[in-house]
Amino acid sequence: MKASKQQKQHQLQQRGCKALCCSCRFSVSSSEEAESSASDRFPSVSSLAHAMVQERLDQMIRERIEARHVERRRQQSREGTKFVVMVAMEKSSYDPREDFRESMMEMITANHLQDAKDLRSLLNYYISMNSNEYHSLILEVFHEVCTNLFLSCKCHW
Length: 157
Known about the structure:
Layout: H1 2-15, H2 32-41, H3 45-80, H4 96-110, H5 116-129, H6 135-151
Helix pairs in contact: 4-6
């Protein structure tokens, strides 16, 4: 029984264990002869350790770069998001054109709206909050306000 166990261990040692999973022991020697014959078949322990350290460093660098990208995306999404609070009030008016104009000018300048997406949202808000009879008037006034604000000087900002 002992002879067969020793014989198996001897065979494993002769073949070598690439995965370092058996009871084989590696010894580090300074002789060039032993080093050259072993390195032809198997990588040395120091080269394995170096490869493991290098892989871990590469992984840490990748994680750091990914964390920076995630943080940049968060900042950009925060910067790109505007919160505009609009309160609809029922109002009777003798001059709805002028009231819409004042209201739109105030909303655009107070909230620094310049992007087409934001302006479109504001227009949609006015349309949705008012009855059909005012829709054409709202579109006309909105066009006038935007033309005056964005085609003239930007002194309102």
